[in-house]
């Protein structure tokens, strides 16, 4: 007789400016009935969009890691993690880097995704690298309209095809 450990999946995401990454994460969790939690910073980013763009640039360039709130879910009890980050200055958001510095995803299957508004740079490959796990499945980068930043640039059908595959 064979015993299979049932795959347990947690969707994690960080979403700051438009709620784009949250929207994708929620859609995954809704369609697949996966658990979901936001990665969140202790100190909120404040100011105008341009202020946050400028602060983000400084943080990315200096390798700054904001303090983040501890997760409520016990990551040890999940063997699959879906993790989503917005693109900040061609890489992932510092909050997601902070999370990945603190939490060990080794041995887990990780499905990484990023959202971006025109030029993703190396955000998806940086996310894959920073997850420090060998099992990466179906990574995806999801473009939003560069003019209308909270409008998805791919069709809902294409998004759902990817969601069905994870
Ligand atoms: C600080 C900052 C830097 C950004 N840098 C980029 C970038 O390098 N390339 C890009 O295409 N979009 C960039 N964007 C746009 C976001 O990646 C895009 O709007 C994303 O979907 C926002 O996700 P969110 O609403 O979940 O925070 C940036 C946005 C912010 C706030």
Automatic annotation (TrEMBL):
Xref: InterPro entries: Flavodoxin/NO_synth (IPR008254), Flavoprotein-like_sf (IPR029039)
Domain Flavodoxin-like: 10-166
Any one Gene Ontology molecular-function term assigned to this protein's record: FMN binding
A Pfam family it matches: Flavodoxin_4
PROSITE patterns reported in the protein's UniProt record: FLAVODOXIN_LIKE (PS50902)
PANTHER family per UniProt: EXPORTED PROTEIN-RELATED (PTHR39201), FLAVODOXIN-LIKE DOMAIN-CONTAINING PROTEIN (PTHR39201:SF1)
Name this polypeptide is given: Flavodoxin
Organism of provenance: Butyrivibrio fibrisolvens DSM 3071
């Amino acid at each position: 007789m064979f015993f299979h450990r049932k795959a347990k999946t947690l969707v994690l995401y960080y979403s700051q400016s438009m709620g784009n990454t949250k929207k994708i994460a929620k859609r995954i969790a809704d369609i697949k009935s996966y658990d979901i939690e936001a990665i969140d910073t202790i100190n909120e980013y404040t100011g105008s969009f341009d202020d946050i763009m400028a602060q983000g640039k400084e943080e990315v360039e200096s390798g700054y890691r904001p303090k983040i709130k501890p997760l409520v879910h016990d990551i040890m009890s999940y063997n699959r993690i879906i993790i989503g980050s917005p693109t900040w200055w061609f890489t992932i958001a510092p909050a997601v880097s902070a999370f990945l510095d603190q939490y060990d995803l080794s041995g887990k299957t990780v499905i990484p995704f990023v959202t971006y508004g025109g030029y993703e740079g190396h955000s998806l490959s940086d996310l894959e690298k920073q997850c420090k796990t060998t099992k990466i499945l179906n990574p995806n980068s999801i473009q939003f309209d560069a003019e209308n930043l909270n409008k998805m640039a791919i069709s809902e059908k294409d998004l759902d095809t990817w969601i069905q595959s994870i």
